[in-house]
Design goal:
The structure holds 4 protein chains of 4 kinds. Chain B is mostly helical. Chain B is built from 18 helices and 2 strands. Helices cover about 75% and strands about 5% of the residues of chain B. Chain B has a two-stranded antiparallel sheet. Chain B is globular and about 65 Å long. The radius of gyration of chain C is 25 Å and the shape is elongated. In chain C, helix 2 runs antiparallel to helix 3. Chain C starts with a helix and ends with a helix. Chain C is mostly helical. The chains are: A mainly alpha, B mainly alpha, C mainly alpha, D mainly alpha. Chains in contact: A-C, A-D, B-D, C-D. The interface between C and D is large, with 43 and 40 residues.
Chain lengths: ~140, ~475, ~140, ~500
């Protein structure tokens, strides 16, 4: 796969725009169609494309496994953290309108963070899945 | 003056303490073996005090544990309970001494486990005797079954295991499938688990269902060994003789008939039974069991098997007495508990002594050995006289009252049944001393009889004679119970 | 007339897909095909929810600043978003299990797998039987 | 600080294990991850006890999430009914986590221990969430969280014995089908009533009388939950899943997984739908009652003929689940209370039995079958004594917790004049004595390999002693369990029959 120059160059060119588009979808979630799930998948597809074209080792160099696991957990913790923060400020869990100065601003900040947490987790889950299936040696290496 | 409640505690807790302490003393056997009789003496002292209290009309009552609303473990001594408690604790003394002699004479293995569960069985029997409500009765009825299993399956060989399996399946099966729902039926019908002097079911159960509820009760009490559920008793004879002596002549089977009598008098009530005639079928069944097991006993060559079938028939005497639903017959039944216990334990002691002393267990081998073990066979002779019901022995009182009750309740054919079975008793019990004293010895065996075995035999044998003259307090107790 | 039958038409598709999915899950012996069947079964549920949410004449539930436009009900759409994620998780777990089974058993046909399991089970019982037989006198 | 905790208790019970499961996955040291898991389950247990106090202060707590008012937003409802399973799950998960310290490393290679503990916490969070949530779709999400985490945990058993993988696969497929059926039911009901909040749903359902979609929705929901609760015909996944899961996992699942779904079944049958309408009465009488009687006998008979002990216990679980559904099916207040009592007691009993058997297989490092049980009783006295006590409790022998639940189930069935049902219950419980006695006899009486120099590890038998003590304690003083169950059934059935 990696000897084919057309694909290599195409991925090099396409890699950045995909990430950019993913981020766009991520942060325009609360106005237009978008949000954490879709953005996460788009961002993951960029990395997976890179790994497919440049081979798994290069893909792992680009995005090592332990960071992947860390970010995966971080997304969930971020999501829960927003909930716990709003709880510490006296409101119920996940009622994040307390976070900001006014309800409107609080909602805005809250939903942004939550969506970002979701985006992080979903992208890393997809990448982790790809790595798991890609380097599954038939010797029965553990999942 | 020590309050009544502490007497109940003394009687009940002393076997429990023996149960807890015996495993700790497995190092020095002498101290451990002393515990049994010591516990017996203490609990008999308590039992006697309780009996005096009940004679004066007081009803000792003690609530131990409140499990949930409406369910509690509580003790309340009825006259019937006082008698059974006394019988169990007094005979425990002799049985404890006897088992020390037997176990040492026979060099049995893991004796510590034997003594611990032995004490636990007596504890369960005493708790049954003094139980205040149906649930406590059922709880300790089950505890008795489970604590006697290791005794029955003591030898741990293939035979003992098979006997243990049969023993458990019949007793646990019958009590779980029949006795528990019956008790819960009473709980649902009367709204509470308590029993009262002359029956709780008076207004709460319409008479047509009374025989069916009684049937569930009767077949639930496996320990009373009525015909279909009697198989466990002969199977349990594979256990060492002290087990069959105390348990299958006194504690286990007596707990069964005690429960039967308690249900008949305190749950159904004598006049409710006689009014509705709910227990007539039980009279037929008990008489049938009585006769059939006596006939089977004749053909049994092994001493303990013969005594086992004789126990089943004697138990049916007591069930029959209760089922006749007449005051006199119930008194007779209760007295029969006492006399049969004393008599039968002597016979089992003798059977064990013959096995330990001369390694013989078949009746056919006994010809002519009367001279080598004169005391033993004399005791057997006196014991069987008491069972048959010959006057100078205690058994005559109970049989007399039973027959009086039969006449009073109008079931004359029961009189015929009693006389036939007395003849059968005489035949299969007298055969043993007759063979020993009158027939010629075919081979002579050196007899080595440990003294610890002869002492209890002589005591229980004298007990059957003393009881004849000292029957007055028991008779007063039963009259309190009945009217 | 068509619009009234349209509503009915959707549900026909939903339950058709559902039955195909269930048939695959139950009928097929190959473990992978079961997973495919399971996914079809779950997708039919997504379609069911979306057809509930559709309000006649309502546009997609995305806020546009033309006032009093009719939107179809957004709630089923959000629920389906979660259901999709759940579907992904189930399929991913299923596929990884199929991979592991393939590497352990060498095949993903249900018959070979249950045959091997039966052999192992009886082997386990046999080996222990002669162990305890040795101790029975 | 404490009033924040008190105010947010309903959600804390769920997110505490959920968040910690995310943190535990990052910890490389195995022992540290166990310590964190243990402290999390302990804190969750404390929270549930505080919740128990709160509930008995004011009868029911509703907790709206993310400042959306209840009928719209997700509402967590804790009342006297839902506190029972919460206590069960948090108590059992705490004891099982202590138990898993020595057992887990023996069966799972050390690289994935922290992942297993994260799945462990995830499964517990899913189960507790399943029980606390008052929103139908949120219930589906937690159903999926707990079942996917359990499937992954069962699959971990595949490292030691490859059958664990097939068991996990079956569990996954059946669980996913069940959950999807549940979602279809929720969808249909949402289509008719327009709400997802369970309390609101029951009000609106009461107004609609016999609309076809309602019956279809009810049917889908009930079947879906019955698959998860392993009610008789839909229980095929349970024996293999519990048998081939790693030891500690099988203890956790055996004691808690089906309990949560059984609670949901009761909640749907009695609080979402109304017990007095004919639909429910017919389902109870003609569907659930016969199924549970079949479950009782089929489970017990399968257990008698089963050789592999863990499968034997799983089959006996199916029979015990039959008792609980039978108690619900009788439908009177007393019988539903008896169902809750047995829900609690069975969690204790089955957890203890699985713990005893798995610690035995941990000591001799072999899979326990009826043949290699022989003689083990003398080698490991503490485990053996606990095993005997807990099997007596399963058989329902007096002075144990099992006896109390059997007593109340029979009393309920007799007072609902179902004397035949009572007889069937007793017959099947007498049958259960057969396989229990077979095991005890093998353990104590049969000759086995002598002096295996087994040293009973304290960290393994301490939780076993705790749970056996609980078995006896709740047999002697069951007023706590009995009262809270009767309060729960009072609240569940409300003014009705």
């Amino acid at each position: 796969m990696d000897k084919n120059p057309i694909l290599r160059i195409a991925t090099k060119i396409l890699f950045a725009p995909i990430i950019l588009f993913g981020l766009y979808v991520q942060f325009h979630g609360d106005f237009g169609p978008g949000g954490g799930f879709q953005a996460g998948v788009i961002i993951a597809s960029a990395f997976i494309l890179y790994a497919i074209v440049f081979g798994l080792e290069k893909g792992k160099e680009l995005f090592p496994l332990n960071i992947n696991l860390f970010l995966l957990a971080l997304g969930g913790i971020l999501y829960g953290g927003v909930g716990i923060a709003s709880m510490l400020l006296g409101e119920e869990f996940l009622s994040y309108n307390v976070l900001g100065t006014s309800n409107q601003a609080g909602q805005h900040i809250g939903i942004l963070l939550v969506e970002f947490g979701v985006g992080l987790t979903v992208s890393n889950v997809m990448i982790a899945l790809f790595y798991a299936f890609a380097d599954f040696k038939t010797s029965g290496e553990t999942k | 003056m020590i309050s009544l409640e502490t007497y109940i505690l003394i009687t009940i807790l002393s076997p429990l303490i023996v149960f807890l302490v015996t495993p700790l003393l497995s190092r020095n056997p002498n101290l451990r073996d002393l515990l049994g009789p010591l516990g017996g003496v203490i609990s008999s002292y308590g039992a006697i005090e309780i009996m005096n209290a009940v004679l004066e009309g007081k009803i000792p009552k003690l609530d131990v544990l409140d499990i949930a609303d409406g369910i509690k473990i509580g003790f309340e001594v009825t006259p019937l309970g006082a008698i059974f408690g006394l019988v169990a604790s007094v005979l425990w003394i002799f049985a404890a001494i006897y088992s020390v002699g037997y176990m040492r004479g026979n060099q049995e293995k893991n004796q510590t486990r034997f003594y611990t569960f032995y004490a636990m069985a007596v504890h369960a029997a005493l708790c049954i005797a003094y139980s205040g409500d149906l649930l406590t009765l059922f709880i300790f009825y089950e505890v008795l079954t489970f604590s006697t299993y290791p005794l029955v399956a003591h030898k741990q060989n293939e035979l003992a295991q098979k006997a243990g399996r049969l023993y458990m399946s019949i007793l646990v099966g019958s009590s779980v499938i029949f006795l528990l729902p019956a008790i819960i039926c009473v709980w649902v019908l009367t709204g509470s688990l308590d029993m009262s002097k002359n029956g709780v079911l008076e207004g709460n159960l319409n008479p047509e269902y009374a025989p069916y509820l009684l049937a569930i009760f009767a077949f639930g009490i496996g320990k009373a060994a009525l015909i279909p559920i009697h198989k466990w008793l002969p199977a349990a004879m594979v256990a060492p003789t002290p087990v069959s002596a105390l348990l299958h002549a006194v504690a286990v089977v007596k707990a069964g008939v005690f429960t039967m009598l308690l249900i008949l008098t305190n749950v159904f009530g004598i006049d409710f039974l006689s009014k509705t005639g709910a227990s007539t079928w039980l009279i037929w069944l008990a008489s049938f069991t009585l006769l059939i097991t006596s006939i089977i006993a004749i053909y049994k060559d092994d001493i303990k098997a013969r005594l086992a079938y004789s126990t089943i028939s004697q138990l049916s005497y007591i069930t029959l007495g209760g089922a006749l639903a007449s005051a006199m017959a119930t008194q007779g039944a209760v007295l029969h508990i006492v006399t049969h216990a004393a008599g039968k334990i002597t016979l089992f002691f003798v059977a064990g002594a013959i096995y330990v002393g001369a390694k013989m267990s078949k009746i056919s081998e006994l010809n002519g050995h009367g001279k080598s073990m004169p005391l033993i066979f004399l005791a057997f002779f006196i014991g069987s006289l008491s069972i048959i019901g010959v006057p100078p022995m205690a058994g005559s009182w109970s049989k007399f009252f039973l027959m009086l009750g039969a006449a009073e309740s109008g079931h004359l054919f029961v009189l015929v049944v009693f006389s036939i079975s007395t003849i059968l008793n005489a035949y299969y019990l007298m055969e043993i001393p007759a063979r020993a004293f009158f027939l010629k010895k075919d081979r002579d065996i050196k007899v080595k009889m440990p003294t610890l075995i002869t002492i209890p035999i002589i005591c229980t044998c004298f007990l059957t004679i003393i009881l004849f003259f000292a029957m007055e307090p028991f008779q007063k107790l039963t009259s309190i119970m009945v009217n | 007339m068509i619009s009234s039958s349209l509503g009915v038409w959707n549900y026909w598709v939903v339950f058709l897909l559902m039955m195909i999915g269930l048939f695959l899950v139950i009928g097929r012996k190959n473990l992978l095909k079961k997973i495919v069947g399971l996914t079809i079964f779950q997708t039919s549920v997504f379609l069911l929810y979306i057809t509930f949410g559709k309000i006649q004449g309502g546009t997609a539930p995305i806020l546009n600043n033309i006032n009093n436009t009719i939107y179809s009900n957004p709630l089923p759409h959000v629920l389906i978003l979660t259901a999709i994620v759940v579907g992904v998780a189930t399929t991913a777990l299923g596929l990884s299990l199929v991979l592991r089974i393939n590497s352990e058993y060498g095949s993903i046909e249900e018959d070979d797998i249950s045959a091997q399991d039966l052999v192992d089970y009886h082997e386990l019982i046999e080996t222990n039987k002669n162990v305890s037989a040795k101790f029975k006198k | 600080m404490t009033d924040i905790i008190i105010k947010n208790l309903p959600i804390l019970v769920v997110i505490c294990p959920l968040m910690m499961s995310l943190i535990v996955v990052l910890i490389p040291y195995n022992f540290l991850s166990w310590v964190i898991t243990l402290s999390t389950t302990f804190i969750t247990f404390i929270f549930s006890l505080l919740l128990y106090q709160e509930v008995y202060l004011h009868t029911s707590i509703s907790y709206a999430l993310g400042n959306w008012a209840p009928p719209l937003g997700i509402e967590y409802v804790i009342d006297k009914v839902s506190i029972v399973p919460i206590i069960i799950i948090s108590l059992i998960s705490f004891i099982t986590t202590i138990f898993s310290s020595k057992i887990m490393p023996a069966e799972i290679n050390s690289s994935s221990i922290s992942k297993v503990y994260s799945l462990w916490l995830l499964a517990i969070a899913g189960l507790i969430g399943l029980v606390t949530t008052g929103d139908a779709f949120n219930l589906f999400v937690f159903l999926e969280i707990s079942s996917l985490a359990s499937v992954a945990l069962v699959a971990m058993g595949g490292q030691k014995d490859k059958q664990g993988l097939v068991a996990a696969y079956n569990y996954l497929v059946l669980g996913a089908v069940g959950a999807t059926l549940y979602v279809i039911g929720v969808g249909l009901l949402y289509g008719i009533t327009g709400t997802l909040n369970l309390a609101d749903l029951s009000k609106r359902i009461a107004e609609i009388n016999d609309n076809k979609a309602l019956i279809a929705g009810f049917g889908f929901m009930i079947i879906g939950i019955m698959v998860k609760a392993a009610v008789f015909p839909l229980h095929i996944w349970l024996p293999r899943a519990y048998a081939y899961a790693p030891s500690a996992v099988s203890v956790l699942l055996a004691a808690t997984a089906t309990k949560a779904s059984l609670y949901i079944l009761a909640r749907i049958l009695f609080s979402v739908f109304d017990i007095s309408d004919t639909l429910i009465i017919n389902t109870l009488q003609y569907v659930i009652l016969p199924l549970s009687i079949l479950a009782m006998f089929a489970g017990t008979i399968m257990a008698i003929f089963e050789k592999d002990i863990k499968r034997l216990l799983a089959h006996s679980s199916i029979a015990q689940i039959g008792y609980i559904t039978l108690a619900f099916a009788i439908g009177t207040k007393a019988s539903v209370a008896a169902g809750f009592i047995h829900l609690f007691n069975h969690a204790l009993i089955k957890g203890a039995l699985f713990m005893a058997i798995t610690s035995m297989s941990f000591y001799i490092n072999k899979r326990i079958t009826i043949n290699n049980l022989s003689g083990l009783g003398r080698e490991m006295p503490i485990t053996f004594v606990c095993f005997v006590i807990c099997s007596l409790s399963l058989a329902g022998i007096p002075l144990t917790a099992g006896f109390i639940s059997k007593l109340y189930i029979i009393k309920a069935s007799i007072s609902a004049d179902g004397i035949w049902i009572a007889m069937l219950i007793l017959a099947s419980s007498a049958l259960s004595v057969v396989y229990l006695w077979k095991m005890i006899e093998a353990l104590w009486f049969h000759e086995g390999p002598k002096n295996l120099l087994i040293k009973e590890n304290s960290l393994v038998y301490i939780p076993l002693l705790i749970i056996t003590f609980l078995n006896i304690y709740f047999g002697l003083d069951a007023s706590l369990v009995v009262n809270s169950s009767f309060e729960a059934s009072e609240q569940l059935l409300g003014a009705r029959k």
